[in-house]
Design goal:
- By secondary structure, this protein is of the alpha/beta class.
- Helix content is about 40%, strand content about 15%.
- It has helices spanning about 15-25, 35-40, 55-60, 70-80, 105-115, 135-145, 165-170, 180-195, 210-240, 245-250, 275-285, 290-315, 345-355, 370-375, 405-410, 430-435, 450-460, 470-475, and strands at about 5, 30, 65-70, 80-85, 120-125, 150-155, 175-180, 205-210, 325-330, 360-365, 400, 415-420, 440-445, 460-465.
- The strands form 3 sheets. A 6-stranded parallel beta sheet has the order 3-2-1-4-5-6, sandwiched between helices. A 6-stranded parallel beta sheet has the order 11-10-9-12-13-14, sandwiched between helices.
- Helix 9 crosses helix 11 and helix 9 runs parallel beside helix 12 (about 290-315).
- The mean pLDDT is about 90.
- Keywords: NAD, Oxidoreductase.
- It is an enzyme of class 1 (oxidoreductase).
- It comes from Papaver nudicaule.
- Belongs to the UDP-glucose/GDP-mannose dehydrogenase family.
- This is UDP-glucose 6-dehydrogenase.
């Protein structure tokens, strides 16, 4: 019987191992983490992450062939295959700060594996890591091996939050990179056999280690680049009277380009895009490729520009000041169907409005008040480091309140910013909302989900990203 152990019970480790346990009933799968509260949550009725379909799978497999534990050493020493799915946050200080990945957690995981192993192991990189991490891990394991053989594989995850379970059930591809040696090929085969329980053979791709590591960064960079491209177009559409939705539809009909990831918005978020592109930039700089680094830097610059542009639109539309005005924020997660707020554009938009002394009232159906207050009080890149390394108690942001429905968020507000495309926001009673707002009443739709014409008939002044401007906004400067 094959035993699998996964280090790290987060967004990647938890769902991935749950699906492996479901699809491979003959394999024992243990997810370990040093965080006791997190493991306790995985063992409870309220899982630490929200992902459609995950609850049912965990409940079916937990206690049968899926286990969650804080006893790292026991389960690592017993495992045949060890997935390492620990954080690789961006460094906040030192060499490469603000760009390079911090491999502290990876290194301590590797040292622990070397310490407790008594039999040969296959060690699988599951978290997104910079190219050549495998080489560093290999060196640590080889120099501490005590005669045990370790094979390192790179098996990057390509999950989209909100559809992680669907993506795991039916992946576009499973990428496994390993050494081009007999032992390396044997390790690739062993991991392929696990996935082959449910993934068609032609979707399991074997590559060398570096290709697998770089493919993950490249895939995220290409996706983020598409969003920045359409967002750059949205600014031009507003300036010229074009409609970005019509432009994107026309462009997406070209089969060489395709329609996905062409929705203009207030900007991209999530735990990976910015981090992976910064990582790519750093690797390019380290390898003497400044032109390539600058090309990818621009993807992030456009994303930051889009968030600033949105805040400027809000402020300039409202007589160039939001000081003391109540602004309702609908949606804080970086996209619908997830409670994840990592790098969500809402953070920068809220901070921008707070910087102009607005009073903001936030409603999101899945994000807790504690999480929102924490996000608004942390500096860039701090969010991805363990809680005990973050500033102790987030100073509560006085001007930001968190409420539990859209109607109380919008009551007496001067304006509404829609920052997450939750389905429920499409079906709100906007007449009721309008009646309870200060006038003129503004809607700034950062996701293009509301029917702007209907809202204008009610009496709202509406700004939709990349759409022809409301006559009110035409005379306002795009930048405050």
């Amino acid at each position: 019987m094959v035993k699998i152990c996964c280090l790290g019970a987060g967004y990647v480790g938890g769902p991935t191992m749950a699906v492996i346990a479901l699809k491979c009933p003959s394999i024992e799968v243990v997810v370990v983490d040093i965080s006791q509260p997190r493991i306790a949550a995985w063992n409870s009725d309220t899982l630490p992450i929200y992902e459609p379909g995950l609850d049912e799978i965990v409940k079916e497999c937990r206690g049968r062939n899926l286990f969650f534990s804080t006893d790292l050493e026991k389960h690592v020493s017993e495992a045949d295959i060890i997935f390492v799915s620990v954080n690789t946050p961006t460094k906040t200080r030192g060499l490469g700060a603000g760009k390079a990945a911090d491999l502290t957690y990876w290194e301590s995981a590797a040292r622990m594996i070397a310490d407790v192993s008594k039999s040969d192991k296959i060690v699988v990189e599951k978290s997104t890591v910079p190219v050549k991490t495998a080489e560093a891990i290999e060196k640590i394991l080889m120099h501490n091996s005590k005669g045990i053989n370790f094979q390192i594989l790179s098996n990057p995850e390509f999950l989209a939050e909100g559809t992680a379970i669907k993506d795991l059930f039916n992946p576009d591809r499973v990428l496994i990179g390993g050494r081009e040696t007999p032992a390396g090929q044997k390790a690739i085969q062993a991991l392929s056999d696990v996935y082959a329980h449910w993934v068609p053979q032609d979707r399991i791709i074997a590559t060398n280690l570096w290709s697998a590591e770089l493919s993950k960064l490249a895939a995220n960079a290409f996706l983020a680049q598409r969003i920045s491209s359409v967002n750059a177009m949205s600014a031009l559409c507003e300036a010229t009277g074009a409609d970005v939705a019509e432009v994107a539809h026309a462009v997406g009909k070209d089969t060489r380009i395709g329609p996905k990831f062409l929705n203009a918005s207030v900007g991209f978020g999530g735990s990976c895009f910015q981090k992976d592109i910064l990582n790519l930039v750093y690797i390019c700089e380290c390898n003497g490729l400044p032109e390539v680094a600058n090309y990818w830097k621009q993807v992030i610059k456009i994303n930051d520009y889009q968030k600033n542009r949105f805040v400027n639109r809000v402020v300039s539309s409202m007589f160039n000041t939001v000081s003391g005005k109540k602004i309702a924020i609908l949606g804080f997660a970086f996209k619908k169907d997830t409670g994840d707020t990592r790098e969500t554009p809402a953070i920068d938009v809220c901070k921008g409005l707070l910087g102009d002394k607005a009073r903001i009232s936030i409603y999101d159906p899945q994000v807790t008040e504690e999480q929102i207050q924490r996000d608004l009080s942390l500096n860039k890149f701090e969010w991805d480091h363990p809680v005990h390394l973050q500033p102790m108690s987030p100073t509560t942001v006085k001007q930001a309140s968190v409420v539990w429905d859209a109607y109380s968020a919008t009551k007496d507000a001067h304006g509404i910013c829609i920052l997450t495309e939750w389905d429920e926001f499409k079906n709100l009673d906007f007449q009721k909302i309008f009646d309870n707002m200060q006038k003129p009443a503004f809607v700034f739709d950062g996701r293009n989900i509301v029917d702007a014409e209907k809202l204008r008939e009610i009496g709202f002044i509406v700004y939709s990203i990349g759409k022809p401007l409301d006559s009110w906004l035409k005379d306002m400067p795009a930048v405050a």
